[in-house]
Amino acid sequence: MRAISDHMFRKALRQRGLVAVPDKGRQEDYLRGFGAETDVIVDVGVHTGTPQLYRAFADRKFVLIDPRPEAEAATIANGAPADFDFHACAVGADSGRMDLRIPVLRKGRNPAMAGFKPIAGPMAKGVTSYDIRTVPVVPLDRIMANYPGRVGLKIDTEGFELEVLQGAAQTLLRCDFVILELSLTNRFDDIAPPSRVMSELAGAGLELRDILRSTGDGRGGARPRLLDALFTRWEVRN
Q1: 191 — alpha (psi -120 to 50), left (phi > 0) or beta?
Q2: What is the C-alpha separation between 226 and 156, in angstroms, rounded?
């Protein structure tokens, strides 16, 4: 088979109304550029870890948060940061306990989609049931009171992002950057619209800076379903 040059490949994509874009969320140098002076990195919704974030800030303190205690071992197996504290809880607007829903698909449990809101839309068709466990929930501000300095924050909580932000008012004021999974469709019941999430961040002086990754609707269309969005302080000029 004859090799196709990068130029020819990009040209063929453009002719079909497509364009190849980098997954900036996996570019360690790019990520580090937005948090060069950050003291502590927080990963909310760890699952099996975020290795590219850990490599980008390998010399920093990490706070890893996930309501499933088994996520700590999974993260260690997948390349955990050298210096981290793990908190086996969820974070939200208020303290208490909530039912975490781990969807069960035809092929088995899918912890990557665990959350507090029932799955909605096309994704719901593959869910046969939920494995429900009650977990503790605390505001992120309570956890971060023990970690002074500038903060870098990543949030991936399957539709619960607004509630995380509502319990993090003081932490957001210390954030140099926030990487957040921003839903563009009603992927879950009672999910906040993108404007509501962005308004919460804007209130803390954080504005949309870049789209690190976009995920489509899974049905062959071009309509995005979610974004990994990067927010930084508006007054930073770079």
Answers
A1: beta
A2: 11
In this predicted model, what pLDDT tens digit does every residue of 93-147 receive, in sequence order? 999 999 999 999 988 889 999 999 999 988 888 899 999 999 999 999 999 999 9
The domain that holds 185 is classified in CATH as 3.40.50.150
> What domain range includes position 218?
31-233
- Report DSSP state, residue 148: -
Q: Is residue 162 part of a domain?
A: yes
What H or E segment, with its residue span, contains residue 39? none
Cβ atoms of residues 35 and 42 within 8 Å: no
9 in any annotated domain: no
20 lies in some domain: no
Task: Give the tens place of pLDDT for each residue, 52-98.
Answer: 999 999 999 999 999 999 999 999 999 999 999 999 999 999 999 99
CA distances from 136 to 48, 97, 100, 180 (A): 20, 4, 10, 22
Structure tokens at 32: 């580090």
